[in-house]
Write a structure and sequence with these properties.
The complex is a heterodimer of chains A (114) and B (111).
Chain A (H helix, E strand, L loop, with lengths): L2 E5 L2 E5 L4 E8 L3 E9 L6 E6 L5 E4 L2 E5 L3 E6 L8 E9 L10 E2 L3 E6 L1
Parallel strand pairs in A: 2-11
Antiparallel strand pairs in A: 1-3, 3-8, 4-5, 4-9, 6-7, 7-8, 9-10, 9-11
Chain B lengths: L3 E3 L3 E4 L5 E7 L5 E8 L3 E8 L6 E2 L6 E7 L2 E6 L8 E8 L6 E2 L3 E5 L1
Parallel strand pairs in B: 2-11
Antiparallel strand pairs in B: 1-3, 3-8, 4-5, 4-9, 5-6, 7-8, 9-10, 9-11
């Protein structure tokens, strides 16, 4: 059974304090790893897709990386507006939702204090 | 800007009522999904659809049904609402092999 585990569950940082969020996965046949940001009371918003080990993607203060067993979302010099829940999801041949389904982790709740 | 629109942000319904949650996408996506999101449980797939009039059960379909009469619209139906169906409901759509675009969610409370 495919599994996606995100850690930590919650993270509190000071503004400007860089850190990383982890998404580890145990899947058969990875066909893509996705990062989403979710603000309270809203739907998830797409950030990145990674397809192969060694791939990296960047957007403003965020950088996502992928290895064969995990992905990291690095946040550099974060600001209070980066506070959100960050979700990781994988697409595999076994994902719920058929060939195009995603299996989600439970998320990391990130708080950036001024 | 592409959009997935859910008809209600907040709903309060009584136990036993039949509840309709509507979702419309303007991106001509083939695939549409309904998830519910609960604290500590994450996103759980209820139903999905590959095409008009096609539907497939997800991980937690019990107590729910769906309808997709037009490509852009995917409805979730709670046949007889119960308090354990109080949750955030999220609709999403996708093109094949791409990630999802989510709606803003509907916070449903069943009293």
């Amino acid at each position: 059974e495919d599994q996606v585990t995100q850690s930590p569950e919650a993270l509190r940082l000071q503004e400007g304090e860089s850190s990383s969020l982890n998404c580890s996965y145990t899947v058969s046949g990875l066909r893509g790893l996705f990062w989403y940001r979710q603000d309270p009371g809203k739907g998830p918003e797409f950030l990145f897709t990674l397809y192969s080990a060694g791939e990296e993607k960047e957007k403003e203060r965020l950088k996502a990386t992928l290895t064969k067993k995990e992905s990291f979302l690095h946040i550099t010099a974060p600001k209070p507006e980066d506070s959100a829940t960050y979700l990781c999801a994988v697409r595999t041949k076994n994902s719920g939702g058929g060939a195009d389904g995603l299996t989600f982790g439970k998320g990391t709740h990130l708080i950036i204090q001024p | 800007d592409v959009k997935v629109t859910q008809s209600s942000r907040y709903l309060v319904k009584r136990t036993g009522e039949k509840v309709f949650l509507e979702c419309v996408q303007d991106m001509d996506h083939e695939n549409m999904f309904w998830y519910r999101q609960d604290p500590g449980l994450g996103l759980r797939l209820i139903y999905f659809s590959y095409d008009v009039k096609m539907k497939e059960k997800g991980d937690i379909p019990e107590g729910y049904s769906v309808s997709r009469e037009k490509k852009e619209r995917f409805s979730l139906i709670l046949e007889s609402a119960s308090t354990n169906q109080t949750s955030m409901y999220l609709c999403a759509s996708s093109l094949k092999a791409y990630g999802y675009t989510f709606g803003s969610g509907t916070r449903l409370t069943v009293v």
